[in-house]
Amino acid sequence: MSHTTTVEAHAPAPHGHAEPNGFMKYLWSTDHKIISFQYMFTGMAMALIAGFMAYVFRMQIAYPGLNVPLFGHVSPDVYNALITNHGSIMVFWVAMPVLLAGFGNYLIPLMCGCDDMVFPRINRLSYQLFLLSAIVLLVSLFVPGGGFGGAWTAYPPLSAQAKYSLTPMGSTLWVIAVALEFVAFLLGGINFIVTAMNARAPGMRAFDVPLVVWFIVVASLLFMASVGPLIAGAVMLLFDQNLGTAFYNPTRGGDPVLWQHLFWFFGHPEVYVVLLPAMGIVAEIITVFARKKMFAYKTVIYTVIATGALSFFVWAHHQFVAGIDPRMANVFTVTTVLISIPIAEMCFLYIATLYGGSIRFTTPMLWALAFMAEFLIGGVTGIYLGASGADIFFHDTYFVVAHFHYTFYPIAIIGGMAGLTHWFPKMFGRMMSERLGKIHFWGTIIPFNFIFIPMFFLGLSGEHRRIYDYTHFPDLATPEMQALRIMSTVALVVMLLFQFVFLWNFIVSAFRGRKAERNPWKATTLEWTTESPPPHGNWAELPTVHRGPYEYATPGRDTDYWPQNEKA
Amino acid sequence: MSVKTIATQRASMNIPTGRLAVWWVLLSEIVIFGGVLASYILHRLGHPEWAEQAAHTNVWAGAFNTLVLLTSSLSAVLAHQAAEKGDGPKAARLLQLTVFGGLVFLIVKTFEWREEIIHGYTLQAGGFWSYYYTAAGLHAFHVLAGMVIMLWVANTARKNQELHRVENIGIYWHFVDIVWIFLFPLLYIAK
Amino acid sequence: MLLNLPRAATFAGEIDGLVVLVTWLVGVWFFATQIMFFWLMWRFRAGANPKSQYITGKEPHLKRWINIPHLLILLCDIVIIVAAVRVWVRVKQTLPPADDTVRIVGQQWTWAFQHSGSDGALDTADDVWTSDTLHVAEGKTYHFLLESRDVLHSFFVPVFRLKQDAIPGRTITGWFKPTRTGTYDILCAEICGIGHGIMGGRVVIASAEQHAAWVQQHSAVASATPTDTTAVASAGASN
Amino acid sequence: MSAHSAHGHAPGAHAGVAPHGPHRNYVKIWAILVALLVISVVGPMTGIRVVMLTTAFGIALVKAYMVAKNFMHLDIEKPIVHWLLIVGLALMVLLYGALAPDIQKGEGQYWKKDENFHKSFTPEKPHTGGGQAQPAGGSGAGTPEHGHP
Questions:
Q1: Do A333 and C88 touch (CB under 8 A)?
Q2: For residue D112, what is the enclosing H or E element?
Q3: I need a surface site. Which of A51, A141, C67, C106 has the fewest CB within 10 A?
Q4: A residues 445-474 near C, CB within 8 Å?
Q5: Residues C73, C114 within the same domain
């Protein structure tokens, strides 16, 4: 206690002069808020690219052989490169930067009441590595031989040997990009965890920390603990590709299945790495706009930890029919189906939080509620795939595609939108247009369901993934199935068009929107106690915390919210 | 930034921020090396015939390098001791000694590998050799990184600044040492 | 029956049954939760409930609403696990005695099938190699030896509800027993390069007699020509 | 976990130099480590496999433990640190255990590995092989883009 106060006596002093000016301020800043914007804007740009890819290959599926407007003819290798990089980008270059790095960087210091991340320069380095990885990935699309087309899971031998993939440079650059991205997020993750653990405001105990911070910390922890083997595996894959080793080459003593295990040992926790930040964002928003204390705050945290722990024991459900020993599948079925227990508990607690609330349907709240409604669909359809017996049929059909889009879309897009619209006033000091916001919301949610519901039925009729033209398969080329494909493609185009409403709203509001006061939503957490946008260093005098994060409608007070830093 | 952020100087967990961060780094390192070694052990036990490839490794070079790393760990921990006493210059000298140890390690490795490659035991010479060069190479890369950081730490420590960094880089160095302690039997002794 | 997808193998019905079971168990919870969710949204909208209540979540009478459903979900999970494992064991962990055996070889980008021929044994002179078309008899139990020449493939027959990845360097044995005649798709469900989009085949399920006739005819041809795997190339004619 | 109990490592030049318990004789510890190293090198020379394995890996564990305890000062480190290291190691054990049935074993339930499988096939490059083996119009699927770079 003593040292913190003494230190914070000279709080504003360190900064101001420390920062470079002009454009360099944006490019070279160590300020966590700037870095968060860098991550978010890069993520959004990548999202647009991946969205365009989706448009191109969905058009090809719906109208095989058609010259896709704005793109042209889609040959099989181009199609493979598009689906591969759409997946990679959406997971590694959109969901992670926006949700984990973007909101993590922005919220952790502000919600923990400190002036910056604990290692600002490492933080900057992590973004720069991330940017480099993004560039490498984009370059890989234009090298001779074309972009990598072995799917985002990059199973060898296809990914390991150019004579099979026919994309020697593309696959190498893809692996390099992914590995770089991992290193960037390791640096970032260490920063998040240590900041939240060690740099909390005086008086802020572990259970005074807002849920979103808890969730981001757990997510970073999952990432750090699971990505290692895949980094090693990526190095081995690079050697297989370029140095003639045979780690994954069965003809010379290697084993292709090894990569699948290393990949999914990371790949499944990765789902929770991106899910948890979104869940945290939703928790913050629901409590604010329901004017409610989180229902059983501590239980929520325990469920998160349980989910995180369990997520390390389920990875092989991605490999049920991949040639692993069938006896193992039974173990992983049990763990996989059981993970529904903490997740269901978490969803119930969120829903229970609405009970007795006074719900205001602002744009962020709409996104948050939509997250719950849509994610439930993704959650329950996961049971089909976790049940090994059913997965024999469902594995690698469009049922899987629909399922994980019902998890990843709510996570990356709906959760991201919820966060952006909620903290926009704090980030840019101005309010977004509610009207445009709601138009964008409905224009996104409704088409979203029309994109992916048909895919469940396509999957149920046996349609398999990653095929550029179903007319080659008599049983799959029926007019009914083609109609479903066209339906989801049309819905996709509509949804993409509605995103321009958001971009317009975002840009115009950022410059012309109504000025936002410090605490437009009347929220309790610390980030709302400083100006909007916060200055470098966040607070003139760093806050001290007196209570938990969700004191809404506390009995015996005239205001219905009680900021964490307000003296009793 | 010349002046540290306040966040960096807080210690809600009663562990100095830098040291806490190093421990998290080690967690991520454990799983990275764990991935390589697990894959290696799986294949090694699955392929008894690799033993005859492994027979060609140079135990003496490995043993000598183990000695070197153990010794450099000693100088690193002595540097930490000096830093605790607030004797920056001494800490710096000991750190430089540690860096020298790392240098010797890398030089020995270079000659060792040169010999093996000349005799045709290259990265592609067989499954064992692939893992041998990958695991040892990954480790050597960590040694190199540690040396660079350590020189930088020594430079500030010499001016009696940031003495806590001496301990932090020391912890990392000991970890690299421990990794080698396991690589030695795995790659050299087990035949 | 899943939508318009016929069942052509003994275990297809079991897998569909499992899917239906899961749908019931999961569907009930899904709709219950959604209805509750939307009802709360409507009931506690600011208009109807201007002042929110202070609820910590420790209140027993409220906590019950979480705990009881939670236990019930655990029960459903156990049911699902048991059902899933039962089907799995039946399809992947048991090998009923075979009437005939077929070798299935995946390669970029085609399926090659080695039928045992009239002597009912693999790797003999009269084996019939075909590419893209698998010929089987209704009502016979088949063992398949699944192999791959180059990259991962996945042998997927929707009407059998059967899927198994083919891994280079491994031979995976499985089984199926066709239950209705007809010609259906064989797919490759694991991306295997630029030709993945055209890699497929057809399974021809004939009545026992028709199949026997087909075998007779082609075994003769096969035993006439020297049998080694290069026959894959020529045997295309046998479609 | 509470900032109230946070005490002053942080500010000043000595930031983070926690008082590290009783003074240790590091040189002595180093000498023991070297002695152990010698044993682990001599052990294999007996040629007895059991002796070799125990000396090699048993001693590696002891050495690692000593370095961690005395040089990294794990013995007086906060419990959280022990936990995160244990978690990391436990995960690697889990990884090994779960992979062994597939990667280490040569065969399992109804599957077996055959490293020479490719020799049983016609020698030509697999993907062109796939191309040729594809008969014109088999399953109505042409084979476009073959050998297409």
A1: yes
A2: strand D111-113
A3: C67
A4: 457, 460-462, 464-469, 472-474
A5: no
Residue C81: pLDDT band with limits 50, 70, 90: very high
Mean per-residue pLDDT for A513-529? 94
pLDDT tens-place string over residues B51-62:
889 989 999 999
Chain A / chain D CB contacts < 8 angstroms: 98
Taking one residue from A and the other from C, the number of pairs with CB-CB distance under 8 angstroms is 298
Lowest mean pLDDT: which of A81-95, A146-160, A551-565, D2-16? D2-16
Does residue A6 register a pLDDT over 90? no
Residue at A51: amino acid letter? G
* Residues of B contacting chain A (CB within 8 angstroms): 1-13, 15, 17, 20-21, 24-25, 27-36, 38-39, 42-43, 47, 50, 123-124, 126-127, 130-131, 134, 138
Average pLDDT score over chain A: 93
Residues of chain C in contact with residue A360, where contact means CB-CB under 8 angstroms, are 46
Domain range list for chain D:
23-72, 77-103
**D34 min Cα distance to partner chain A (Å):** 30
Write the pLDDT tens digit of every residue in A448-464: 999 999 999 999 999 99
Nearest to C21 by CA among C92, C84, C86, C70: C84
Q: Is the pLDDT of residue A69 over 80?
A: yes
Cα of D55 to nearest chain A Cα, Å: 28
Closest residue in D to A202 (Cα–Cα): D3
Q: Which residues of D touch C173 (CB under 8 A)?
A: 110-111
Q: Helices A326-338 and A363-386, interaxial angle, to 10°?
A: 150
Cα(A179)–Cα(A241) distance, rounded to whole angstroms? 14
ipTM of the complex: 0.92
**Last residue of a domain, which of C58, C92, C126?**
C92
CA dihedral angle for residue A501, residue A504, residue A506, residue A511, rounded to 10 degrees: -160
pLDDT at D143 over 60: no
Q: Find chain C residues with C-beta within 8 A of A465's C-beta.
A: 189, 191
Whole-number average pLDDT of chain C: 90
pLDDT in tens, A234-257: 999 999 999 999 999 999 889 999
Nearest Cα residue to C9 out of C164, C171, C193? C164
| Chain C residue numbers touching D109 (CB-CB < 8 A) | 93
Residues C108 and C162 in one domain: yes
Which among C72, C92, C112 is the end of a domain?
C92
Q: Give per-residue pLDDT as tens, A327-385.
A: 999 999 999 999 999 999 999 999 999 999 999 999 999 999 999 999 999 999 999 99
CB of D103 less than 8 A from some CB of C = no
My answer on whether C200 and C232 are in the same domain is: yes
Closest chain A residue to D119, measured at CA = A251
How many Å apart are CA C9 and CA C137, to the nearest integer? Answer: 11
Question: Domain A2-529 - what CATH class?
Answer: mainly alpha
Number of domains into which chain C is organized: 2
Q: How far is CA C205 from CA C8, C135, C159, in A?
A: 9, 6, 11
Nearest residue on chain A to C36, alpha-carbon basis: A351
Range of the domain at C229: 100-238
User: A259 in contact with B at a CB cutoff of 8 Å?
Assistant: no
By Cβ distance, the residue of D94, D115, D140 closest to A253 is: D115
Yes or no, beta carbons of C45 and A151 under 8 Å apart: no
Residues of A in contact with C170 (CB under 8 A): 250, 323
Confidence at residue A55, expressed as pLDDT on a 0 to 100 scale: 97
Residues 6+ apart with CB under 8 A from A237: A154, A156, A159, A160, A175, A247, A248, A259
Check residue D67 and report its DSSP letter: I
Q: Which of D106, D127, C110, D92 is nearest to A250 (CA)?
A: D106
On whether both C127 and C56 belong to a single domain, the answer is: no
Neighboring chain D residues of B83 at a CB cutoff of 8 Å:
17
C130 in helix, strand or coil?
A: strand
Give the chain D residue whose CA is nearest to the CA of C165.
D111
Q: What is the band of D124 on the pLDDT scale with cuts at 50, 70, 90? A: very low
